[in-house]
Amino acid sequence: MSDPAPPAPVRVVLLGAESTGKTTLCRALAAAYSTVWVPEYGRQLTEEKMGALTFADHLHIAQQHLQIEDEELAQARRFLFVDTNAITTSLYSYYYYQRCDPALLQLARDCRTRYAHTVVCQPSIPFEADGWRGPEALRNVQQGTTLMQLDLLGIPYTCVDGSVAERVRQVRTLLG
Length: 176
Fold this sequence. Notes:
The protein is an alpha/beta fold. It has helices at about 20-30, 40-50, 55-75, 85-95, 100-115, 140-155, 165-175; strands spanning about 10-15, 35-40, 80-85, 115-120, 160.
């Protein structure tokens, strides 16, 4: 009799406004759990295109991000930590174009079942302007909109706050 296959890694997504520490926390969690994490593909494409994204790019961002997630899942051990998802991408589509591709909206809805845990990073760390982010004043609007999207989609979430170490402890408590 062979040993049963280990359970599939659990997907944990980190959301929050710009400059709330999502990337830093993903890296720290991946290190703490000796696993991999998925960086924000939208950021990569924004840098490649020097900020000149089109309406169609938003659906492409969400689709490519999912593909990268699926590829990294094969390398993950116990957990896969994900920096943003289609919910964030849909927010940017509305922000820049006041509309969203129906396929992107469906990918945002699919987030209800894709992730076992949704963690929202609070905007309590100092804002870091990097040339790609919007103004700091936009951060609270983004944060509120993200929370509203999660509530409207019926996605439970856990907010984390404090230093990176404190946030890692909070996520460890969540994950058990």
